[in-house]
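Researcher: Quick test of sequence recovery. Tokens follow.
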């Protein structure tokens, strides 16, 4: 009986660590996605501010601004793809975190059940002893 409780306790510790790791990976993935989203927003802002400045003075300046705008647009599309992938990764990590949490809760319930069974077994064993032995065991002599 004691072995069962000890095994369940070890399993619970492992499940707790697995859940903590899954939660940390989820937080890391969220941070990565938020960083990509911030970069994409900053890129859009820079591209939007590119043509709102003072008037264009010559064709070369306008052409270089057009080229820069094209490159910023391409980088924005690449960041949008990276952001999509990062959000999908967050969803996957959240799913893994939920599974790890569920496993941890199951292990906790099994440990509690094993501990209750052990206590019940001890109570039944104590109740099965003759009265004088029970008194010696509990210290009522």
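Model:
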């Amino acid at each position: 009986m004691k072995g069962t409780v000890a095994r369940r306790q070890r399993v619970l510790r492992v499940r707790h660590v697995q859940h903590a790791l899954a939660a940390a990976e989820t937080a890391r993935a969220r941070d990565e996605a938020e960083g990509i989203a911030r970069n994409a927003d900053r890129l859009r802002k820079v591209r939007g501010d590119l043509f709102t400045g003072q008037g264009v003075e010559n064709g070369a300046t306008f052409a270089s601004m057009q080229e820069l705008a094209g490159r910023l647009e391409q980088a924005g599309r690449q960041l949008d793809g990276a952001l999509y992938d990062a959000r999908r990764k967050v969803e996957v990590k959240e799913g893994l975190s939920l599974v790890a949490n569920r496993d941890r809760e199951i292990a906790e319930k099994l440990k509690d059940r094993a501990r209750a069974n052990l206590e019940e077994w001890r109570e039944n064993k104590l109740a099965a002893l003759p009265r004088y032995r029970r008194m010696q065991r509990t210290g009522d002599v």
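Residues 1-138 form a domain with the Helix Hairpins fold (CATH 1.10.287).
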